[in-house]
Design a protein that fits this description.
Shape of chain A: globular
Strand content of chain B: 15-25%
CATH class of the largest domain in chain B: Alpha Beta
Number of domains of chain B: 4
Oligomer: heterodimer
Number of strands of chain A: 12
Structural class of chain A: alpha/beta
Radius of gyration of chain A: 22 Å
CATH architecture of the largest domain in chain B: 2-Layer Sandwich
Helix content of chain B: 10-25%
Number of domains of chain A: 3
Structural class of chain B: alpha+beta
Distance between the termini of chain B: 61 Å
Largest interface: A-B, 30 and 33 residues
Largest sheet of chain A: 5 strands, mixed
Number of strands of chain B: 14
CATH class of the largest domain in chain A: Alpha Beta
Largest sheet of chain B: 5 strands, mixed
CATH topology of the largest domain in chain A: Rossmann fold
Strand order of the largest sheet of chain B: 2-1-5-3-4
Order of helices and strands of chain B: EEHEEEHHEEHEEHEEEEHEH
Number of helices of chain B: 7
Helix content of chain A: 40-55%
Number of helices of chain A: 19
């Protein structure tokens, strides 16, 4: 049984209310930080913990916080990125829905460390009911004096607001999120300047994922060093993994980083194996944008070592034989899954969500979707596989924000590992029915 | 700050972008730019045609930048080494960008007023391929009027955002912007509303393609049949220094003067642009400098035979049959 730090209380009835949350040791980190620690000490604990951003990129959080510019007389902001829209990722939703106070507690403690008087929780538009839950929790926290003026009589004042987005994947990109928060069109900004220097309203801003902020609570409570003891190497602590696909027990699991992938998929404690006794075909380990890996490569690295659930082990071998931990959206596919159809779904998503600012992503994602549609219609040629490969290579790395890469990587990986399947589909000229997508969305192709 | 671009070193002040530094060296190293416009704040970074490879970040931190960077929005550092035309990867990537810009472009140059002074034509000629790999229906939109003088033909637009930035920077209201997202993005105004400003006509000049055209000039004349002259008049709204395009004695259109990089030198007002279409309105200074490779300077018919031979040669090289020799 792995150690749980974030969702250990998730089955306690009424944990979403302040009363029950407080009875289970809630808001202790706020008391500890505000009364006994300086902001720099909190930042140091986070640095010691080795906590890495849980939103996908895995950038060390302590380092990110230390980059925050601190000019005199200028406001600083903490923004919580709850625009969780990556297909396959639903861990933040679970956390906010079940234990909203864990996020609010983390927001107060983190804001104290950063010296932010105001913070925002930007929740994706489709999660409006989650926003209600968080707002309710915020109201409770205000009423109990955990937020507002002069918290706990320490002189630290803090306001936290919930902002609901319009439902755009691109607003999960931090600068697009800031634009959207400012009331503009959610287009990513061109960096530099980075948000740590000029973010929200041109002020220094830190943007962190929900899980990252919630992880600050156990770090402050138990100390950074204790947190760093969990996990392996530079992947410290616990991570929420949202497991979905053809497994017996889909859901959100908190794992200690370093757990073998095989154990995660097959043990009864976690996914419980592939459903209906089928064989596993492929796994997308960290949300739809990370490269897909076939069974032999997800269980063992190219060197033959067992693959572990860590940032390093999953990335072992680069993109040729590896993938990424990403945001923890763990999608398992059984032997009956069509990789081509799956890739069409992913590409359709990125086409739909491209903001349209820079040309490679705007035009390339739509083009890739149309070609994949040809595969499904049974009109594709073998040469279309090479064309797809060429298009993705011309998108990757040429765009303003990482959406270009997010759209290109799945295509590249699917062709890299499952080229034969693409060729077979092209040769068979068989029609694959995807009409149910057309009912759900307006598909142009 | 010393920066080396394609092996040529230049000393530039702090805050200069790679593109500006390259332009200071000259056209032999300057990357093409479809969306960047010196006169417009915050423009650039969208089209990705100006991407370059930074092989050395600076003297202090010599690590190369992992991805190609947009030269128009990246400031130089001391000791930076940049590769543009000498880097095969960059040329290949730029070819990709040009292909992306062209897959949804209607290629209706024969009926487009911008033909002959279109940046996309130049870019496609220099960096594109002769054939398309795109086999699907191209994007189409209805034409709309932005006021009574400007026609917006979204089908041709490459979404460079130049007109959006212009409208943002000449007016204090947001009347002109982008609606929808992804490849369904559309330049639009608030329900065909006029951009109510004396300088609104400049959106035509900044447009690199034929998406925004002057309704007083549409379908009147091919640009290569007209003769551009620099002219001025006394104007109380703008500088009054313009480029007047003559066909015989007739003024067919008036635009702002453009520099070597096809950027407007000074914005002109709508009155100069639309209302003064008589030769007597203008004091003519002399012929405008037009690059010798431009089709506009090809309106001297003695070169026509030479041009025909060149075109035939190119067609042969590309494997096309000349029109009159088709079986």
């Amino acid at each position: 049984m792995g150690k749980k730090l974030l969702i250990h209380n998730d089955k306690v009835p009424g944990i979403a209310t302040l009363e029950v949350y407080r009875a289970h040791g809630g808001y202790a980190s706020v008391e500890k930080a505000l009364k006994t620690m300086t902001p720099d000490q909190v930042t140091d604990e986070v640095k010691k913990s080795g906590l890495r951003g849980r939103g996908g990129a895995g950038f060390p959080t302590g380092l990110k916080w230390s980059f925050l510019a601190k000019p005199e007389g200028v406001n600083r902001y903490l923004v919580c990125n709850a625009d969780e829209s990556e297909p396959g990722t639903f861990k933040d939703r679970y956390l906010m829905e079940v234990i909203p106070h864990a996020l609010i507690e983390g927001m107060i403690t983190s804001s104290y460390a950063l010296g932010a008087k105001t913070s925002y929780i930007y929740i994706r538009g489709e999660y409006f009911y989650v926003a209600r839950i968080v707002e309710k929790a915020l109201a409770e926290a205000y009423a109990a004096g955990w937020l507002g003026q002069n918290i706990l009589g320490t002189g630290f004042s803090h306001d936290c607001y919930v902002q609901v987005g319009g439902g755009a994947y691109i607003c999960g990109e931090e600068t697009a999120l800031l634009e959207s928060l400012e009331g503009k069109r959610g287009n990513p900004r061109i960096k530099p300047p980075f948000p740590a220097v000029a973010g929200l309203w041109g002020c220094p801003t830190v943007v962190n994922n929900v899980e990252t902020i919630a992880a600050v609570v156990p770090i402050v409570n138990e100390g950074g060093e204790a947190y760093a003891k969990i996990g392996i190497g530079k992947s410290t602590g616990t991570k929420l993994i949202s497991a979905s696909g053809h497994i017996n027990k889909p859901g959100v699991y908190e794992i200690e980083l370093g757990l073998p992938v095989e154990e995660f998929i097959y043990s009864e404690e976690y996914c419980g194996g592939i459903r209906n006794g089928k064989k596993m075909k492929a796994v997308v380990a960290g949300g739809s944008s990370v490269p897909i890996l076939p069974t032999e490569l997800i269980l063992k690295t190219a060197k033959g070592e067992p693959r572990l659930m860590t940032y390093e082990s999953l990335a072992d071998g680069g993109f040729v034989t590896g993938t990424m931990l990403g945001s923890g959206g763990f999608i398992v596919m059984d032997e009956d899954t069509s990789i081509v159809k799956n890739l069409f779904t992913f590409t359709r998503f990125y086409h739909h969500e491209s903001c349209g600012q820079c040309s490679p992503c705007r035009e390339g994602t739509g083009w890739m979707e149309k070609i994949l549609k040809k595969f499904l219609n049974g009109t594709a040629n073998e040469s279309d596989v090479d064309l797809l490969w060429d298009i993705q290579s011309k998108i990757e790395g040429k765009t303003i924000c990482p959406l270009g890469e997010a759209a290109a990587w799945p295509v590249a990986a699917a062709i890299r590992h499952f080229k034969q399947e693409f060729l077979d589909v092209a040769r068979s000229k068989k029609f694959v029915d995807v009409s149910h997508y057309n009912k759900l969305y307006k598909v142009n192709a | 700050m010393k920066v080396t671009i394609d092996g040529i070193e230049i000393d530039v002040p702090k805050g200069t972008t790679i593109l500006q530094a390259a332009r200071l060296i000259g056209p032999q190293v300057a990357p093409p730019a479809m969306c960047y416009y010196t006169k417009l704040k915050t423009s650039g970074g969208y089209c990705r045609t100006c991407i370059v490879k930074v092989t050395q970040g600076s003297t202090a931190n010599p690590t190369p930048m992992p991805k190609p960077v947009a030269s128009c929005r990246t400031e130089v550092m001391d000791g930076m080494v940049v590769e543009n035309f000498i880097n095969k990867e960059i040329l290949e990537a730029r070819k990709g960008v040009v292909e992306f810009l062209l897959i949804n472009h209607p290629l209706d140059c024969p009926v487009c007023d911008q033909a002959g002074e279109c940046k996309l034509q130049d870019l496609g000629y220099e960096n594109g391929s002769a054939k398309t790999r795109y086999e699907f229906k191209r994007r189409e939109y209805e034409m709309i009027d932005i006021g009574d003088k400007i026609k917006l033909h979204m089908t041709r637009c490459i979404l460079c955002y130049r007109c959006v930035k212009t409208a943002e920077q000449i007016t204090d209201k947001r009347l002109h912007g982008v609606v929808h997202r992804g490849d369904a993005s559309e330049i639009s105004t608030y329900i065909e509303q006029v951009i109510d400003n004396d300088f609104s006509g400049n959106v035509i000049d900044v447009c690199p393609v034929g998406a925004l055209t002057d309704k007083t000039f549409r379908f009147k004349q091919r640009v290569w049949f007209t003769k551009p002259v620099d002219a001025h008049r006394k104007c109380d709204k703008c500088c009054g220094k313009t480029r007047v395009w003559l066909k015989g004695e007739e003024v067919v259109r008036v635009t702002a003067r453009k520099d070597q990089w096809d950027e407007v030198e000074e914005f002109i007002c709508n009155s100069c642009r639309y209302d003064h279409k008589k030769t007597s309105d203008w004091v003519i200074e002399g012929p405008s400098p037009i690059h010798r490779n431009s089709v506009i300077s090809q309106n001297h018919y003695q070169h026509l035979n030479e041009l025909k031979v060149q075109v035939m040669k190119q067609q042969k090289a590309l494997g096309f049959m000349p029109i009159d020799k088709k079986p």
